[in-house]
Amino acid sequence: MNPLKCAFGVLSGKFLGFVVRHRGIEIDQTKIDVIQQMPEPKTLSELKSLQGHLAYIRRFISNLAGRCQPFSHLMKKDTPFEWDESCRRAFQNIKDYLMKPPVLMAPTSGKPLLLYIAAQEKSLGALLAQNDDQGKERPLYYLSRTMVGAELNYSPIEKTCLALIFAIQKLRHYLLAHSTNLISRADPLKFIMSRPMLSGRLAKWALLLSEFEINFIPQKAIKGQGIANFLADHPIPAEWEVSESLHDEEVFYIEVLPPWRMYFYSAARKNGAGAGILFMSPNDDLMPYSFILSHYCTNNEAEYQAIIHGLGMAVEMGLSQLEIFGDSALVIKQLIGEFEVRKEELVPYQKEAQRLLEKIPNVTLGHVLRASNSQADGLAGIVASLAQFDARPKRIPIIAKMGGADLRKILRGRRSQSGFGLCNRGRRLASTIS
């Protein structure tokens, strides 16, 4: 540590070109005097010098991009340098502003921050503030920039969103340490977060916002000198419609349809067994299916085969939400983990059903009485009766795609790995799926 660069027990001091006092951070007066004494730029080089001096103290100047807009376009390549009356007024406006520059406060931990954002036709602005111990708003940081390229074609609400994203990117080190109250004439959080589908740009914005604790407060609910000064520096373009509702707000809401439902039941007879499956769409359309289980099996095995057939169909149909109901409490509770699978012959069935359940993003299982499962029960009973006469009900193509050979391979592999001696049971299940 160099003692010549340290100061202890002083009321104020210069640090990194700024004056730090007990009341806050101020611009070094020498830097203000340089700008105040500058003549009007007559060449591009002089204009660049002015822009450089302003850039160094930009955090103290509200809407610097908007104030410099009349002469900022002169910096573009192949643009003739013409310092007109609008440039003179803008230059004088900046000098007048620096006659009484704001004092910026250092943030206090434990208090929420206030983030004001505004968008004009060609520029964006933001103010980060915080209430002091007396409850008065004190500025912490001013931000602004001009819009370029496709940003100029954004709608007013999209420009407001862009102002928010610009602010959180520049002020990330402040916002991560505090909760933030966002103050604006429209709610950009609602616009970004409530869209039914996010485009690439909105998805990126939503991802950037996800790491901050930001709450929206309507602009009309805030009273104070901070908002008054900020709005004065960021006038709303006359052609922009000021509305409490967002543009195309009706498209921000989604009609959530109820999930598909699947009922399953099996019937095991002496000479054969059958499975009945009933799908019910969100519009209450019924889709009944039935299957012959050609080999003898127990009731629980038949129930497992029925739900495996149904789950295979649901996966092929691409269902993302499904409610499954069956009248076998044992099978349902084993699949949801309440009951342990103690019979070795049911283990391969349970594992295959779990594998299929994992392919459906949102699925629930419930137990219903047989009276509530009458249609699937009836289908299974009819098929079981037909099985004694070697009659086969029609199978839909989607079941043919389930891949009986693949299931046979899975079951045999599990049988060989588990060492449970499930040879007969495994062959029985595999042979019934074709």
UniProtKB/TrEMBL annotation:
This is RNase H type-1 domain-containing protein. Gene3D superfamilies: 3.10.20.370, 3.30.70.270, Ribonuclease H-like superfamily/Ribonuclease H. It comes from the Eukaryota. Keywords: Endonuclease, Hydrolase, Nuclease, Nucleotidyltransferase, RNA-directed DNA polymerase, Transferase. GO terms for molecular function: nucleic acid binding; RNA-DNA hybrid ribonuclease activity. Residues 258-385 form the RNase H type-1 domain. InterPro entries: DNA/RNA_pol_sf (IPR043502), Rev_trsase/Diguanyl_cyclase (IPR043128), RNaseH-like_sf (IPR012337), RNaseH_domain (IPR002156), RNaseH_sf (IPR036397), RT_RNaseH (IPR041373). The lineage of its organism: Eukaryota, Viridiplantae, Streptophyta, Embryophyta, Tracheophyta.
